[in-house]
Amino acid sequence: MLGIGGSLREGSQSERALQIALGGAAETGVRTRLLTGPELVLPFYDAGVPERDERATRLVEAIRQADGLIVVSPGYHGALSGLVKNALDYVEDLREDRRPYLDGRAVGLAAVAYGWQAAVTTLEQLRTITHALRGWATPLGGSINSAETKFDEAGGASDEKTVRTLRLIGRQVAEFAVTRAA
């Protein structure tokens, strides 16, 4: 299970949300891996340039190997972050794979923004991108208003319902992956 997201700020609210969702996946017994912040600082995706730097190669290979993904983006001005969008653009490098793009993989999604409008629109954009990349968006997605919910360093949040939602998203991705593998 691969978690992608967060922001450039270490310990950001969206990174903490991602860690909670990955924790939900880990509760089912699957292995998890987290790629955030500095690991996602990549050259702008360019399909016309076949060479990839080391970080981009690691990201593409991690996605290739993953049976499921969890993507959490901060909402900036009503949209997902450029950091997360650029990382998702690299999924194009999987177009010729046996499992092209995100085909056959569950993708859990959440957006964290300071306000409901940006949280909801960011989640919707993540769903649209997931569908375009042939991924199976989990039935439950998370729109988290960071004006109302604060994540802590201990892996929790001020709103227990948000924690339950994120853990359930992680479990849904893991359960889909395990069921599909069987």
TrEMBL record:
Record-given protein name: NADPH-dependent oxidoreductase
Leader sequence segment: none
Coiled coil spans: none
Gene Ontology terms for molecular function: FMN binding; oxidoreductase activity
Species name: Amycolatopsis balhimycina DSM 5908
A GO cellular component entry from the record: cytosol
Domain NADPH-dependent FMN reductase-like: 2-139
Entry-linked PANTHER family: CHROMATE REDUCTASE, NAD(P)H-DEPENDENT FMN REDUCTASE LOT6
